[in-house]
Amino acid sequence: MPRDLTDIYGSLGFAPTVLYSNFVTSLDGVVALAEEPSAGSLISGRNQPDRFLMGLLRASAEAVVLGAGTLRATPGHLWTAEHIYPAMAGSFQKLRASLGRKPQPRLIVFTSSGNVDLSHRAIVDGATIVTTERGAKSLRGRLPDSCDVIQIGSERDVDVERAFAELRERGYAVILTEGGPHLTGDLLAAGLLDEAFITISPVIAGRDVESRLGMVAGIEFLPGRQLWSRLLSARRNSDFLFLRYALAR
Questions:
Q1: pLDDT for 209
Q2: In total, how many domains does the chain have?
């Protein structure tokens, strides 16, 4: 890593093949707000060290994965290091060059229905859409030339195991997921997620009658299945904690 990046974060390295996630959570475990589809900035208060870490994780990745819902909730966003933390754009590019990466990570969008905002700037710039047979049919002839489609089966939902096997076959070894709680739940259930970066914000979100999700949704592990993790690192900046966990298979 360039020296100015290590001066801020310290050392950061990954296995040759890895899938890692990144979340910011409130002190009481909320990562999503029903009334605010893209809640990360609100929960973090646009904390600059958190945004730097998001940039660093994107700069390290060959591909960034998210769901179509996340794409729709963030119009105008680009899943690049420079977009989230422009102050270190040059250093992020030096890091990618030293790792042998392309200038930008490939955006990978998961959708079972094919309901993708094709006018979104991130799609226009180029993305791979992972979808079902019905989703592929709805997208046929409509995608920009910068995009391609991976069709995974004809079932209602995308098979994440087959999808990630295909991504590996295409050469994407180091992958960041910025998908929401449901995609994270699918990845954990399939034993695909290797590491989780979690920023704990000192804000308290609270819960009432509406659904405010934590990091994992759509599946339960305890008490039937115990999925433990191992703390790899813990960093602090002011009142924020930056944690890195390895997830057991």
A1: 67
A2: 1
